[in-house]
Amino acid sequence: MVRRSVVHSSRRSGVVTRRSVVLGIAAVGGFLAADLGAVLYARGPLGSRSRLTPQAFVDAFHEVAGVHRGYRLNHAKGIAVSGFFDSNGAGEEVTKAAVFRAGRTPLVGRFSVPGGNPTVSDTTAAPRGLGLAIGYPGGRQWRTAMLNLPVFQDNSVQGFYDRLLASKPVPDTGKADPAAMARFLTAHPETARAMSTIKQQPPTSGFADSTFRGLNTFYFVNADGDRAPVRWSLSPMREVKPPDKSSSNPNRLFDSVIRDIRTGPLRWRLLVTIGEPEDDVRDATIAWPADRRTIDTGTVVLDSVATESAGNARDVNFDPMVLPDGIEPSDDPLLPARSAVYAASFRRRAGVTGAAPQVEDGEVAQ
């Protein structure tokens, strides 16, 4: 069977195509090649209070999902996208990062679903991921890995690790052992509260009408040196619809977004929420109050979709600690841990060839 790659690129004048993105990025210092530095990842404990190492997470993901060489440890199933960010210049008030100056910046990205098994079936209730890597002159980059959740499930490295192991499917049901998960939630009330918050958010029909959030707190620093805690999100510019619960298609989310981008570009507003002194910057399980000031900084546009392959988002490590001048990490303990584990995942898959993409031509590859 001959497989055809899913590729759609807008040909309209002024729109950044996937080809122009890759060529343009190469010209400013190697957007994709920058990930080669990720092989030098941390091997020691993930934070001052943790005895966990990146290898411990590698082993845990393998125990839960099995070993799938050439794929990400988490969010193994995905598809590559590209496009651009049209900044309106409003973000310059709070950050000197070049991407927030008025103008257009190319980007590559990746839609994904969680888990280390690249053949997992899509479900409407499962979290959805969107990673973006935004590049601009001088080789400076901004990378962000977002989820369509109102809060993150964990606020510590140990909590994430414990939840991962508690989620291991049992052979009889293919789902997590209820007793193991109950023990975990008893030991981690912060996750129980976060999951309650998450359940209150109604699911949407797919990737295109999902709100994606960075969840962890960062700091924006403007040209005057003023420093403000922020969280960012992408708000969809298309109508939000409920999911089609009658569909049994195991690739429903990816089929839908492929059709959507083939029909026309998808757009989100990039919103930056400014925290107040009383807002917790270390705990992503706690939502900030809804009345916090939010700045609409411009529009993220995705106009191309492609099967994961060499040279596109398949090779990008969406490390949240890859930040330009003007954006700084907070003291959230999950940030350096995520960076180290992402690097471990990148290192393991970087040298593997022949791993077939699991989303291809609108169908799960067989």
TrEMBL record:
<protein>
    <recommendedName>
        <fullName>Catalase-related peroxidase</fullName>
        <ecNumber>1.11.1.-</ecNumber>
    </recommendedName>
</protein>
<dbReference type="InterPro" id="IPR011614">
    <property type="entry name" value="Catalase_core"/>
</dbReference>
<keyword id="KW-0472">Membrane</keyword>
<comment type="function">
    <text>Has an organic peroxide-dependent peroxidase activity.</text>
</comment>
<feature type="domain" description="Catalase core">
    <location>
        <begin position="26"/>
        <end position="364"/>
    </location>
</feature>
<comment type="similarity">
    <text>Belongs to the catalase family.</text>
</comment>
<keyword id="KW-0479">Metal-binding</keyword>
<keyword id="KW-0575">Peroxidase</keyword>
<keyword id="KW-0812">Transmembrane</keyword>
<dbReference type="InterPro" id="IPR020835">
    <property type="entry name" value="Catalase_sf"/>
</dbReference>
<keyword id="KW-0408">Iron</keyword>
<keyword id="KW-0349">Heme</keyword>
<dbReference type="GO" id="GO:0004096">
    <property type="term" value="F:catalase activity"/>
</dbReference>
<feature type="transmembrane region" description="Helical">
    <location>
        <begin position="21"/>
        <end position="42"/>
    </location>
</feature>
<dbReference type="Pfam" id="PF00199">
    <property type="entry name" value="Catalase"/>
</dbReference>
<keyword id="KW-1133">Transmembrane helix</keyword>
<keyword id="KW-0560">Oxidoreductase</keyword>
<dbReference type="InterPro" id="IPR018028">
    <property type="entry name" value="Catalase"/>
</dbReference>
<dbReference type="InterPro" id="IPR024168">
    <property type="entry name" value="Catalase_SrpA-type_pred"/>
</dbReference>
